Amino acid sequence: MKRYLTVIEKAGKNYSAYIPDIPGCVATGKTPEEVRQTIKEALDFHLEGLAEDGLKAPKASAQAEYIAV
Questions:
Q1: In the chain, where the domains are located
Q2: What's the confidence (pLDDT) of residue 32?
Q3: Model pTM?
Q4: How far is 19 from 27, CA to CA, in rounded Å?
Q5: 7-11 and 26-29 as β-strands: parallel, antiparallel, unpaired?
Q6: Which of 2, 22, 33, 58 gets the highest tally of CB atoms within 10 A of its CB?
Q7: Going by C-beta distance under 8 Å and a sequence separation of 6 or more, which residues neighbour residue 22?
Q8: 34 pLDDT exceeds 90?
Q9: Three-class secondary structure assignment of the chain
Q10: Which of 34, 29, 6 shows the shortest CA–CA distance to 16?
Q11: Is the dihedral angle over the CA atoms 45, 49, 1, 7 positive or is it negative?
């Protein structure tokens, strides 16, 4: 099982999410919980498409950390 960093942001009246290691893999939702589900579905769909094309899933390499100022 691979784990990919997912960025979830407030976007106006909803939330958006993207996965830095998977270009083009984005999703939106009305709540953080909904966007977590839609980005997982988007990731599954994206990885299935790569597999159908005979391509490997990108390596999970993005990192995140909070910096205090």
A1: 7-52
A2: 96
A3: 0.89
A4: 9
A5: unpaired
A6: 22
A7: 4, 43, 46, 47, 58
A8: yes
A9: CCCCCCEEEEECCEEEEECCCCCCCEEEECCHHHHHHHHHHHHHHHHHHHHHCCCCCCCCCCCCCCCCC
A10: 29
A11: negative
Distances (CA, A) of 27 to 16, 50, 69: 6, 18, 30
Q: Tell me what the mean pLDDT of segment 11-17 comes to.
A: 96
Token digits of residue 7:
């960025």
Tokens standing for residue 46: 């994206």
Task: Measure the CA–CA gap between 69 and 56, rounded to whole angstroms.
Answer: 39
For 50, the token pair is: 């790569």
Supply 8's token pair. Answer: 């979830």
